[in-house]
Design brief:
The structure holds two protein chains of two kinds.
Chain A lengths: L7 H14 L10 H12 L6 H12 L11 H27 L2 H6 L7 H11 L3 H26 L1
Helix pairs in contact in A: 4-6, 6-7
Chain B lengths: L5 H15 L3 H24 L2 H18 L10 H22 L8 H4 L14 H14 L3 H12 L4 H7 L4 H22 L8
Helix pairs in contact in B: 1-2, 2-3, 2-4, 3-4, 6-9, 7-9, 8-9
The chains are: A mainly alpha, B mainly alpha.
Amino acid sequence: MKDEEPTPEELREAEALARALDGAPSEAAPPPEALETAALLRHGGGELDPARAQALAAKLRAEVRPRPRRRWWPVLVPLALGVAVMVILPSALLLRSRQLPPSIVSSAGLPAPTAALLTAQAEAARGRERALGALDAQMRSYRRALFARLQERGR
Amino acid sequence: MTFDDPAWLEKERQWLGALARGDGTAFDQVFQAFAGPLYQRVLLPKLGDPAAAEDALAETFRRALERLPRFEDRGKGLWPYLATIATNLAHDVHRERARRGRALASFESLLAPLETPGPQPGDGPDRAKVRAAVSGVLSALNPRYRQAIELRFFAEHSREECARMLEVKVGTFDVLLLRALRSFRERWQDMVGAPPEAA
């Protein structure tokens, strides 16, 4: 067979293809259909090399980790206890102060905290932002009563 | 047994349960079942490059494992899930390579006429079919073109060695190989089938 003389275009394409097949960069783009056909001839029906597959599996296996079970109790129990203390303690104090005879309260010499103050404290302890304003107002009121009582005692 | 066989799907469900508990053996079984078909049927034809296909295969499994807690088995099993991840990754690789001026050549469209529905666990039977088709087309080629292809792609000689064996200049061999590839493609389309876009 006698080869026909290549055209300049064909020469450019042939060179670009040769460079692409060798993995070398080329100024001209290689003809895509020839590259695809070359890839088919080189790798068509190719299989994953067993040794490479094994190495790949071992590497990936190391990345398989059991998902930690979500355990809520270490978080929930202390949280529940904290909330219980914040709610129950002021309530108990409130109840106690209500149950005490007025004479005992007055004998302490200091004003008892009002129910509104204790409630505001409890709300603030629960982390409710809006409760802070109410607590502040109640505390001011309590301090005023306290200072007034102290002044009375000082006279 | 195909990947959509009920008995196979049941086996997959057991693996998934074990995988969720971090069982490495279950991972081995999933990998053994799907790595070959993913590589051979999806990644290598799409990327046309074994190294790129291997990298994409590893990344496919990595992503699949990461997303496994969100995997919803809609009765179709793992194959469509893994094949979709692999296909998307192959597109990403093409885009990235093209941006770097190192475009990869997919031969997926040339293989399309040989594709059989329903891949199977383990390596599929396509290898023999592809080799038979290549061999058939080669035997129908001009002997000089066939020799150029065999020397360059099967014996894996350098272009200089090929030129010396064929007693031509390197530039002449390059042209010969280009013509041989074009001739092969034409014969392939005649004998095996045209790629979908050319059909």
